[in-house]
Amino acid sequence: MIYVLIILFISVVYLLIKVKKLEKKIVEEQPLDILETLNGGVILMYKNKEIFNVKPKE
Fold first, then answer.
1. Structural domains in the chain (count)
2. Do residues 54 and 44 touch, judged by C-beta distance below 8 A?
3. How far apart are CA 36 and CA 54, in angstroms?
4. In this structure, what are the phi and psi dihedrals at residue 56, rounded to the nearest 5 degrees?
5. Between the chain's N and C termini, which has fewer beta carbons within 10 Å?
6. Whole-model pTM above 0.70?
7. Can you give 14-51 as a three-state secondary structure string?
């Protein structure tokens, strides 16, 4: 019985770590803020402090 609990615990911890890594990867790839500029452009702010200004097509 104790062995089953230990195995369950280890597998749950393993899954949690995997999910956290996946979440982190998703967060790093998605912009934190999407701000619209006055001229209709879009500013994408990423977690690594890079800012991309996407201008609308004329």
1. 1
2. yes
3. 9
4. -70, 150
5. C
6. no
7. HHHHHHHHHHHHHHHHCCCEEEECCCCCEEEECCCCCE
Report the alpha-carbon distance of residue 29 to residue 32 in Å, rounded: 9
Q: Convert the pLDDT of each residue in 10-41 to its tens digit.
A: 888 888 888 777 766 655 555 555 665 565 56
Pairing of strands 42-45, 51-54: antiparallel
What is the distance, to the nearest Å, from the Cα of residue 19 to the centroid of all Cα atoms in its chain? Answer: 11
> Tokens in use for 4?
């089953």
Q: Which domain holds residue 27?
A: 2-54
